[in-house]
Amino acid sequence: MTDRYADWDASYVLGALSPAERREYERHLEACPRCAEAVAEVAGLPSLLARVPIEEVPGESAESPQSDLVAGALAKHRIRRRRRRWTAVAIGSLTAAAAAIVLVVVVGVSGPAPSATAVTVELASTTQEALTADVRMQPRAWGTELSTRCRYTGGVQPTDPPAGGDPSSYSAETRYGLWVTDRAGVSSLVSTWRAEPGSDVDAAGATDVRLGDIRHLEIRSVDSGDVLLQSDVTAVGS
């Protein structure tokens, strides 16, 4: 891991990198196991942030509860990463000293590397909402990277809030989330985003679930929990 990429893991998972930075970081991940491990460790951040009710988020203030939540999670993650790095250095030094005394030849058989072939799945709508999406799943050494293209082709919603609604809380945007279900039937949230009528959104996500273990994909409304789009996934590389 180099200093340049040391803090890119969370930005990558949360979709905060520019397209050029994202491509650069993905090339780096192929050759850097430490950064790949770091991405896997923060893959659950979107799920953590989704637990913050939208009405409790006061805006973009750096002192908001959501900002504190993210900062705390990242701080703990980086402390754990430094401790592991120091431990690895110590173990490496002891191993080198032992090797100078006794030469041990170990012949091992490694398992096959994850397939580099990406799989794209188009999700089917479960409602009348004008929402379409496809998910590109790229196997990585640490799990699976997921890129969601979500298109909201519905008409423009009225600018006035619904009758009796609070004008200050009204927004045409909707929060969506991508859930992944593994072969054991366990579902996890891997990415979230906002969309409004006429928008076209690319959302990045990551999970430590291997591509061959992913069995089902769903896009839900984060606020209501309703399933809007879904698709089964044919076993890949199992």
TrEMBL record:
<dbReference type="Pfam" id="PF13490">
    <property type="entry name" value="zf-HC2"/>
</dbReference>
<feature type="transmembrane region" description="Helical">
    <location>
        <begin position="86"/>
        <end position="109"/>
    </location>
</feature>
<dbReference type="InterPro" id="IPR041916">
    <property type="entry name" value="Anti_sigma_zinc_sf"/>
</dbReference>
<keyword id="KW-0805">Transcription regulation</keyword>
<protein>
    <submittedName>
        <fullName>Zf-HC2 domain-containing protein</fullName>
    </submittedName>
</protein>
<keyword id="KW-0472">Membrane</keyword>
<feature type="domain" description="Putative zinc-finger">
    <location>
        <begin position="12"/>
        <end position="36"/>
    </location>
</feature>
<keyword id="KW-1133">Transmembrane helix</keyword>
<dbReference type="InterPro" id="IPR027383">
    <property type="entry name" value="Znf_put"/>
</dbReference>
<keyword id="KW-0804">Transcription</keyword>
<keyword id="KW-0812">Transmembrane</keyword>
